[in-house]
Amino acid sequence: MAKAFTNLMNDRAAAEREKAGASGSPDAGGEGQIVRRMKVETRKLNFFYGPSQALFDISVQIPEKSVTALIGPSGCGKSTFLRTLNRMNDIVEGARHTGEILLEGINIDGPEIDVVALRKRVGMVFQKSTPFPKSIFENVAFGPRLTGVSDRRELEEIVSTCLKRAALWEEVKNRLTDSAMALSGGQQQRLCIARALATNPDVLLMDEPASALDPASTSRIEDLIFELKENYTIIIVTHNMQQAARVSDMTAFFYQGHLVEMGQTQQLFTKPREKHTEDYITGRFG
Amino acid sequence: MVESLVNSPDTSETPPPVLKLHRQFSLARLRESIVEWGMFLCSSLSILVTAAILFVLLIETVIPFGGVKPFFGHVSLWEFFTETRWTPTFSDKHFGVLPLVCGTMLVALIGALVGLPLGILSAIYLSEYARPKTRSIIKPILEILSGMPTVVYGYFALIFVTPYIVQPLFHSFLGWEVDSTNALSAGIVMGIMIMPMVCSLSEDAIRAVPRSLREAGYALGSTKYDVSLKVVVPAALSGIVAAFLLAMARAIGETMLVAIAAGNNPKLTINPLKSIQTMTTFIVNTSKGDTPSGTIEYQSLYAVALCLFVITFTMNVISHAVMRRFREVYH
């Protein structure tokens, strides 16, 4: 069932792509420039928790295979925004939104969209590492098992690939059957990344993935993000300005539910267009 | 002691100390300590009572007291646990506790088979699926069920479950002989009785699973069913096991229900359609009869009670140990 939906979504995506190609992609830039399709897009997204509005008219375009950082003071709506992209807010009581959220041009709120299939394509890593109280192997195998992969060989293949991609393989390859709870904080977080990769997503949402980690682990996660952007579109929420500057290609600054400014990271940190952005990145408030 | 604490008014020339750190006697402090001691006594009462009960059980069974030979002075432990006949009030006396233990376990096991799935599934439903409104209706009803006097359950088993469910099914339909009091009816109703307890304790365990773990499950593309059964329940498993053990301890110690519905026939059998006798039934029936104190029949009552005490106590200890282990995982 879920598979059928995934296929449906893929077919639609392919159709969209062709259409976009036929009408001339808007991103088809000059010679030699890497042409990037827009992976994720929102149009006039308004979000509400019950009666209170958390996001106002957010319109962004996020190119594929890039890292986009969302920055802003606590409570500015950046996490809420991130969680709308895989419809995690669906499970929050009283949450609703207006506007469009598009994944490869397809509205993810559409009635034909299977939210379960969506979440397999848009993976998520949380602030607090959330390993399941199972073995390391079973943690990574969790997603594939959901889709019905039960062949031991195949699962082993997926687990080792994902652990390698998450730069954890060398540390755990001899103790895959140990409990994931026994790993250190940084290892747990990389395990969660591996687990998210195992559903074979193409977008990876990261909600302050390194905020609870020591500097060494943080830098490993950052290196990892840099490597992962080869294959994945990454959107990362961070409180850490240096981190945003280090890892991201694009940066979006949120303030009180509004998108104040979004642009190339280099430009945003050196020549911000908005006074607000400048005040925030120079530490004058927030 | 108190004297030294009292800060006597200083009449000499020396200037008063700037900072007084001495404890000063005051009525408020006295009241404080009286209240504290009073509360301590109240809470230690439960320990005292437990110790006293254990003491009484032991002097009738193990420790010789006042020149009376205790139960295990007459009957060896070997006989107590291997003899298969329990006939303390007959002229041909046999003291094998096995038929009683077996009867108790039979009822408790059937109770568990009924109560455990019912309780756990309703706990999962209440915490994961039910909307707050549904939950606010079901929860109080479950609490009423757990507050029902057990004598009501006993008669429910005797005058409803046996004649209208068990007998039609097994006697009329399958042609097996069904006693009017039997372990099966008592066990089924026992399951219904322990179900609210299993449900409420497992629900506590399930709700204690952090929300972040559920979100991680959903983020991987799990359905609600996947999250509930593959993430939440395994994470809460030790809490659920503990809940189950506590409920079993209660089922084993339950008296009224089995005294009414399970029968009074200490025969070693595993046929649930037969009339049996549990440890608690034996105790209640013997103690309300006119067994003279000091006789071995009278003492056998304490021996069975001690056996029961040890079983339920062990189960309680195990379940608390399991629960403690569970708490350590997330804190």
Description:
The complex is a heterodimer of chains A (286) and B (331). By secondary structure, chain A is of the alpha/beta class. Chain A contains eleven helices and ten strands. In chain A, strand 9 and strand 10 form a beta hairpin. In chain A, helix 4 crosses helix 5, helix 4 packs parallel to helix 7 and helix 5 packs across helix 7. The relative contact order of chain A is 0.16. Chain B contains 14 helices and no strands. In chain B, 71% of the residues lie in helices and 0% in strands. Chain B has two domains: 60 residues; 254 residues, MetI-like fold. Chains A and B meet through helix 3, helix 4 and helix 7 of A and helix 9 and helix 10 of B.
Give a nutshell description of this structure.
The complex is a heterodimer of chains A (286) and B (331). With 286 residues, chain A is α/β, with parallel strands linked by helices.
Q: How many strand segments of chain A?
A: 10
Q: How do the SSEs of chain B run, as a string of H and E? A: HHHHHHHHHHHHHH
Parts with pLDDT < 50 across at least 5 consecutive residues of chain A: 1-32
Task: Based on the coordinates given, report the CATH architecture of chain A.
Answer: 3-Layer(aba) Sandwich
**CATH fold group of chain A:** Rossmann fold
| Widest beta sheet: strand line-up of chain A | 6-7-8-3-9-10
CATH topology of the largest domain in chain B: MetI-like fold
The profile of the biggest β sheet of chain A is: 6 strands, mixed
| Unreliable spans of chain B | 1-6
Cα separation of the termini of chain B: 43 Å
State the assembly state of the protein chains. Answer: heterodimer
Helix/sheet category of chain A: alpha/beta
> Could you give the order of the helices and strands of chain A?
HEEEHEEHEHHHHEHEHEEHH
Total number of helices of chain A: 11
Please indicate the count of domains of chain A.
1
| Greatest chain-chain contact | A-B, 26 and 19 residues
